[in-house]
Design a protein that fits this description.
Length: 795
């Protein structure tokens, strides 16, 4: 779903709710926290989900096939449906009930989820908004009316409706490998989406008296039963979206005969519902490289004027999809073209449906944007597998398999602003992109909004970039998340938070995860490693149900990069990035340093190297008569020091010996010439924000040249608060810029700059000595001093 980013500046109250916890390993210390492994924060790997992030050998998921008939009553604005569901239990568990979702109950004022929001008196309102509070609340007439729930033989099934969820009690236990067939008849009044909100409903066009229907969450849908949660039957509050099972759909939609219908999957009876001219144009569009109008603008305008009382039934089929949505209106212009996915040679019908109000934009761009999106997403994830991809202009932004609902309308004269155009392109790319996340890589939106919205927004950004290099993307680049990261902590929560408990939903579920993935790709991992790992995740979890740990583990497994520090900070924490240049120390070598003179050093022979305190283990071992110490049983092991430690060898430890140190070497003329222009720069950094990131520097020299350097985030591993980095250059540094390309989402760039002309900048000197060419003392070798054996005259 496409959301506009709105950063709120007012204070909000804290809340309670499930949040994945960022458990600290070494609290109170300046290290040992940010770079520790996630450990017990992630679920324990098992036969269903491996430590590599791949599905395990025991992975399973259940399935549901649907055969649905629907009747759209335009006069009453009512939808009547009947479905036969075949549910397959592939789990190792016995099931004695199943859960279905009745999402339309969210529009009911007596059967919704009951997730009330805090409300206050407004300083101003309108006559449409102001009305007396009704207590008790009266039924507004919306929500699902269940007419019949039976098994395949027509026997009534016992069921319980709890707000937006329905439990059906099975007549007998559904065992592993078995299936259960049941039927549901229902109807509901279709809501005015423009007034009541929501993802589906109708929009009325007063000028011509027609409706445009977007039919979403319109049928009782199976809940997911999974290895990691059991039944996902959390209530639908209108925010946290959906968790759904894959299956095959056959859907027959009966609508007024002058309506044009688009739906998930392929229509199987175009020859029965289209005119001969429209069918001919559709056949031509199937092989066209440019969009062809299947229903023309003139035909749509003509249809607006006559409300037919005749009926037609459109039949759709879709395989391996998690949902089915459709749209219906006599207002639609419809165009299409063929696009081939190079990775699998899949020939896809890209199509768009739109009213005349958006003709000037959608005719130019929509279908081409659909084609561009599925081709680009296929490059970065998996090849698009479905036969159809559709965009519908419905003043909306919502996604379903093979069909999505978008926005973008022109002025009455056909012109449009650049913002409207870019918004339209962005929403089409985003919603069509949702075919991949979560329609194929099928995460649990109800629990983890970011797993589809964040990953999709990231890939949307890649796709926008490949549409137009000057496209003004609002999500993805690191600098675009800064305003959100600056907010007070009581307006933030970790990305790893339940969908219902997020204050700033757009930045948290969309922007921050998308930005994080882009930082990984551009700054931390590099494009090659990231792209391979991201594609691996998509391939592993296509047509399956991934969890966050599956993504985190796969990205590491396929890249060879330890990213636990990044997941911990960016996804489990709320700290921002604010790395500051605290101080720059400048020094030049003293080329006239006097070398150290030779000297005589007095010393005494080492005393026995035994512990000054005998611990409890040594005492108990000595008193234990069953313990035989090796050196006591092997006389050959009883050397000089065995006896020296026990006082059996005597050495004069007070006698003084003398050792002579060698003199240092002075710098010669060649050395002085070599180092005369060297200047050292010690840069002290402070981690003011808390979130560690790579240190990226741009050095500008007095001659105008520039050099760049990047230290990996691991530079902070031994001190997460302060680090220093030293450089030596043969040219004078004029300025140092931290994060010059704003690629780490640093919230305060004012402390990212140092200038040599700034106040307090002084140059000191450091001593420079010539190093002898021969190697130093060999580890474990002679130090040149007399040892106790030599002092005792032993060899």
């Amino acid at each position: 779903m496409k959301l506009k980013v709105i950063i709120l500046s007012f204070s909000v109250f804290a809340y309670t709710g499930f949040t994945a916890q960022n458990i600290q390993n070494n609290p109170g210390s300046n290290h040992g926290n940010k770079f520790e492994q996630l450990g017990t924060i992630l679920p324990t790997p098992n036969i269903y989900r491996t430590a590599s992030g791949a599905p395990g050998h025991g992975y399973w998921q259940n399935r549901a096939d649907y055969n649905i008939t629907a009747y759209l009553d335009e006069d009453k604005r009512n939808l009547k449906g009947s479905e036969t569901v075949t549910y397959y239990n592939n789990s190792p568990d016995d099931l004695d009930y199943i859960w279905l979702q009745l999402d339309e109950n969210e529009h009911s004022n007596i059967r919704n989820a009951g997730y009330d929001a805090s409300s206050v008196l407004r300083p101003s309102t309108t006559d449409q908004q102001l009305k007396a509070t009704e207590l008790p609340v009266k039924d507004n007439g919306y929500g699902v009316s269940l007419e019949k729930v039976t098994d395949a033989s027509g026997n009534t099934l016992k069921y319980t409706v709890n707000k937006t969820m329905m439990r059906i009690d099975l007549p007998k236990v559904l065992k592993k490998g078995e299936k259960f067939v049941f039927k549901v008849d229902w109807n509901y009044n279709i809501s005015n989406r423009m007034k009541m909100g929501g993802r589906g409903g109708y929009e009325n066009f007063p000028e011509d008296g027609n409706d445009l229907y977007t039919m979403t969450q319109w049928y009782p849908r199976m809940c997911v039963y999974s290895d990691f949660q059991g039944w996902q039957n959390h209530q639908f509050t209108g925010r946290g979206e959906f968790a759904l099972v894959f299956g095959d759909f056959k859907v027959s939609v009966n609508v007024p005969s002058d309506h044009i219908v688009g739906g998930t999957g392929e229509c199987k009876n175009y020859d029965q519902v289209l005119t001969s001219d429209q069918l001919s144009r559709y056949r031509k569009a199937e092989n066209a490289s440019e969009p062809i109008e299947i229903v023309t603008l003139d035909e749509a305008k003509k249809a607006e004027k006559n409300h037919s009382k005749q009926r037609k039934t459109w039949v759709f089929e879709a395989k391996d999809v998690r949902d089915f949505a459709w749209t219906s209106s006599r207002k639609f212009v419809w165009d299409g073209m063929r696009v081939t996915i190079p990775e699998n040679n899949n020939k896809v019908m890209a199509m768009s449906f739109y009213p005349k109000e958006s003709y000037g934009l959608y005719r130019k761009f929509s279908t081409k944007a659909v084609a561009h999106t599925i081709k680009t997403y296929s490059e970065f994830t998996i090849p698009y597998p479905y036969p159809v991809a559709q965009s519908v202009e419905a003043a909306n932004g919502m996604e379903y398999p093979m069909i999505c609902f978008n926005f973008g309308r022109t002025e009455k004269d056909g012109t449009y602003s650049e913002g409207t155009k870019n918004g339209m392109l962005g929403v089409i790319i985003h919603e069509v992109g949702h075919n991949f996340f979560p329609m194929i890589i099928n995460s649990d939106e109800r629990q983890w909004a970011w797993m589809d919205e964040g990953l999709n927004t990231f890939t949307e950004y890649l796709t926008e970039e490949k549409w137009d290099n000057k496209f003004p993307s609002k999500r993805g680049p690191a600098w675009t998340i800064v305003d959100y990261m600056k907010l007070p902590k009581d307006q933030l929560e970790p990305i790893m938070s339940n969908s219902e408990n997020i204050v700033q939903y757009g930045p948290n579920a969309y922007s921050k995860p998308a930005t994080g993935l882009n930082i990984l790709r551009e700054t931390i991992m590099g494009r090659e490693l990231f792209d391979k790992a991201f594609k691996t995740y998509a391939k592993r979890w296509a047509f399956k149900h991934p969890e966050p740990a599956d993504l985190f583990r796969t990205m590491e497994d396929a890249s060879g990069e330890d990213l636990d520090w990044f997941w911990r900070g960016w996804f489990y924490g709320t700290d921002p990035v604010d790395i500051a240049i605290d101080k720059v120390t400048v020094a030049v070598p003293n080329l006239e340093t006097d070398p150290k003179a030779a000297a005589e050093v007095k010393y005494q022979v080492e005393r026995p190297l035994v512990n000054s305190f005998e611990d409890l283990s040594k005492i108990r071992n000595r008193e234990d008569k069953n313990i035989k110490f090796y050196v006591d049983t092997d006389k050959a092991a009883q050397d000089f020091y065995y006896k020296y430690d026990r006082g059996q060898e005597k050495v004069d430890n007070n006698k003084e010996y003398t050792i002579k140190t060698e003199a240092g070497l002075p710098l010669d003329a060649k050395d002085k010439e070599k180092f005369k222009n060297i200047t050292g720069y010690q840069i002290d950094f402070v981690n003011k924000g808390g979130l560690v990131m790579p240190i990226i520097l741009e050095f500008t020299f007095e001659d105008g040249s520039k050099l760049y350097d990047k230290s990996a985030a691991q530079i902070w591993r031994l001190n997460e608060q302060k680090v220093s980095k030293t450089y030596y250059f043969e040219k004078k540094v004029k300025s140092i810029q931290l994060d010059p390309m704003r690629e780490t989402a640093d919230i305060d760039t004012n402390n990212n700059f140092w200038s040599s002309t700034g106040s307090g900048t002084e140059t000191s000197k450091f001593q420079l000595f010539k190093q002898k060419q021969e190697g130093g003392t060999v580890r474990g070798g002679s130090t040149g001093k007399v040892n106790p054996m030599q002092a005792a005259g032993k060899s």
